[in-house]
Design a protein that fits this description.
29% strand
Amino acid sequence: MNAFTTIALMALLIGAPQDLALESKAVTRVQQTPSSQYDPALPGSPIGNWLTKIVGPQSGVSWRLGECVEQAGEANGADRDIPACVEATAILPDDRKIVAQFFVGSLKQLSDKTRFHFAAIESDNQFQNVQKLSDLPQMIRAPFPTVVLKTVELPEVKTLGRPRLFLAKAPALADPPRTLPIESGGAIPPPPKRSPPPRISKGVTQGDAVFRVTPVYPAIARQINASGSVIVEIMIDELGRVVSAKATSGHPVLRSAAEDAAKKWVFKPTLLDGNPVKQQGTLTFEFNLPQ
């Protein structure tokens, strides 16, 4: 997946508008709007010139018209025209992506005024929200934060697909092979009596789970179309409770939800020679986007 495809997924844009004249008019209007109209802290030069200056001429800025990213608190668009935004996209020399959206009306009719709608910086599928355009120059110069998901404010998810759960079996215990020395000049001693092998319950299987919790589909996952399997390594104590859970694979925005759900599972205790013992295992959660 190339850089522009990643930005397109993050912005949830729906194709290019069919009316090229409308797109050209909207893009030109935004590019020529004074930067101070979108943020009073910016100069009065056109926003198109300002963006090109802060990202550098080697990066370049591409412009297009599409659907606006839905923000927290906005009404569902089922009973109104689809909101339209002009989107500016730039790829920095260090492969970070910058996307900024400016509201221009709807895909059917442009409004008289435009306004700043949304901006973010993306790096390795992690997104850093830009609250004000005047913050963008400093954010470009600063190192990308290690954790940025909490800074993105997104709407609550009302309709979610139900994740499917898969369970992996823990390996059974086995006695290591033994070798017996042979003494020259003497009779071979009879083999020693073997003690019965330790009895261990079936371990982490679906039938042993007495309480299960379905993970909550994160709101940010829906915004960036994140889905797939998340494998979580778990430790179960003598009472069958999950005392630790650590996701080892899967999309970063899905791991926390999978770990939270795994910690709430309860299993039948694992028995070794009739005594409850701790047991390791894995849970696999499958996240599918709603159709």
